[in-house]
Design goal:
Length: 103
């Protein structure tokens, strides 16, 4: 499920313009539905495959002002620490990259 969540964020933040993505929805970890403009599924495949070539870190999958507050006292924690904790606990680029490299 973490790899699917990571893929969803990658598509939303890094592929939106290239693929003209209008939305990414689904039921993690079962499926994702990517609503694209006039781009082909081949383009989607190539963008996902390029993930292993990119030098991304998990923190790059959060928008600049995003600091997810998931726990009761998160409002008292500094934003930078919340961002790093979310990236470490809820995203996994390594697993996603190794899965994609076997496609």
């Amino acid at each position: 499920t973490i790899a699917v969540r990571t893929l969803e964020r990658f598509l939303r933040l890094h592929c939106r313009d290239a693929l003209k993505i209008k939305g990414v929805v689904g039921r993690s970890p079962y499926f994702l539905v990517v609503n694209m403009g006039k781009c082909s599924t081949v383009s989607l495949y190539h963008e996902i495959k390029s993930l292993s070539d990119r030098r991304l870190e998990a923190i790059d999958l959060l928008s600049e002002d995003e600091a997810p507050k998931l726990q009761k006292y998160d409002e008292f924690i500094p934003t930078d620490l919340l961002r790093r904790a979310f990236a470490a606990d809820y995203l996994d680029l390594e697993t996603l990259g190794s899965s994609v490299s076997h496609w």
